Structures are given as structure tokens and as C-alpha cells.
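retry 2 of 3: previous attempt timed out while embedding 3-methyl-2-ureido-butyric acid. Reduced batch size to 1 and resubmitted. Inputs unchanged:
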Amino acid sequence: MTSHSPAFDPDAAIASAHQDRPPRRLTVAAGQLGPISASESREAVVTRLIRMLEQAHCAGAELIAFPELALTTFFPRWYVEGEPELDLDSFYETQMPGPATQPLFDRAAELGIGFALGYAELTPDGHRYNTQILVERDGSIVGRYHKVHLPGHREHEPWREFQHLERRYFEKGDAFHTWNSFGGVVGLATCNDRRWPETYRVLALQGAELILIGYNTPKHYAPDPSQNPLQGFHNRLVMQAGAYQNGCYVIGVAKGGREEGVDSLAESCIIAPSGTILADCRTEADEVIVAEIDLAETSKYKETLFDFERYRRPEVYGPITEQTGAIPPED
Ligand code: CDV
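retry 2 succeeded.
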């Protein structure tokens, strides 16, 4: 007579490990902005941001993500050197918080709600970045990120309906970062970064469980207008894939609507590690959406299909870091 010991079942082991894992619940929000006109003051914009902060707090949120360049109109649409009435430096922050933004920090700390905020930064030594900061619930700045993937062009291109001069007005950031905060690991990315799989993977390799992405996406894409009707689809496609393939929550938050004659995509959303949408905006105006997430849920994906330690093959991914453009096989 033979006796059979029960076979080890890895799926059952993972399922039971998940059951044992204590939840790490966090209520998060996206604070979508409608358009900001060129003449709108910082103070007026900060008042709008504070209103959304308060709404998010009332709905139980402990963290709200605001968009890219959330304090001004999207000025890279203008070739400023050709328009002397526009003072380029007035679009940049030289202090954070500064006199106009201090009330946002004060109100957030008073309510105990953290936030992510995108803005144009001019450093004391003269560097200009498309910056995003992460601010903890006590009002302290946890981290600062400089946009890595700068889209658009450097020189004036008068054939375009409007310019996209991020490559003229900003320097490239040189790293992605994550921080231990909000009871988990949080990473930041900005707008065009969301289209690149490397963004999510590099953040996830630094443990990211929640990625906050602010964006300004004109609906008209001058180099190939056939992509215009697909803007909303592509927005979700990249962020849902990034969330799923890396076992992360993703919050994508827009400055949308018609700003200075340019229509921009809204469609902000909160995405689960399964890739499904938990909440999404329905307007192109200032709008807050909220979702309760459980950061422990990320392990369901990080410890199964996307168990990096077990399944990744960095030794065959060399071209990812060794080259930029594609090198097809020789004949
Ligand atoms: N602000 C951006 O980075 N916008 C780009 C547009 C120009 C394509 C985006 O990827 O949405």
C-alpha cells in the first residue's frame, strides 16, 4: 500500500498568503482641472485647487493627484520669443511653496490630505523643469520629479496650429523615483511618460504600488492627425496596461477642456492593478473622483504573473538600455 502526501499547490499557497496579508486601505482622488486661461492668476487657480482638495477630503480621501503644469495655462503652446507680450518667466515657480501656493499647503495640512502637483520649476541656478511634487498629509514635500520624456519640438514650427515647445522650455529629468509614503510605495510620472512602458517598469522595479500621472494632452496631434479620434482610447490603453503589467494602481489626471483655443483631453481615471477602471471623470471641467484602494492588492499581480524576481529576463533585455532607436536585422 502506498501513501500519497498532498502535492504542493503554488496557486493555493499564493491565495492563502494573500488572505493573510493585512489590507492597506487608502482613499485616493484625482482632481481634474478644466482650462486655465493665460490671464488667470495663480491665486485664482490655487482657490480652484483648494476647492477640489476640500471636496476630496469630504469624500474621505487622504491623497489627491492634480495635473501636469497645474498652476498656469499650458504655455508651451506658444513660441514666446515671437510674442513679447508673454513673459515666459512668469509661468515658472521659483519657490515651492511660494506666496501663491502656500495656502494650498496650509489647507492640505489642516485637513490632513496629501497631494501631487505639477508645475513649471525655475531653480535658483537657472534650470527649468516640468516638475511634479508629492506632498504628505502634514504638508511636507516627500519628493520631486522632473519629467523624463519631453515631447514636441525645440524650434518654432509655424506650420502647426499651435506649438508644443516643451523641448525648448524644459530640460529633461534624468531619473524616475519612488517614495515610501501614504502607507505604500508611490511613484510619479508626467503626461508623455505614461505612453512609455519603461516608465511603469522602472517605477515598479523601485517597488511602486501607486503611480500618479498628471497630463495635458491636446486632442489634435499635429504630426499625425489620424490619431486625434483615438486620444481617449490611447490614454486608457497605456495607463491600464501599465497598471496591470506592473501590479500597480495608477491615477491619471488631466487638465482638460478648451484652453486658449486648444481642446485637451479630460477623461481622468483611477485604475486598479487588474487594469480595470475604478472611477473616471465625466466632464471636461474641474471635477473630483474618488476611490478606496487597498495597496496590499498589488501583491496579487506582483507575486503571480508579474513576479519580477521569478520571471523577468534582464539578460535578454539589453537593447532597452543600450539603444534608443530600432536596429532592424541586416539583409
Ligand atoms: N504634455 C504632454 O506631454 N503631452 C503629450 C502630447 C504632446 C502628445 C502627451 O503625450 O499627451
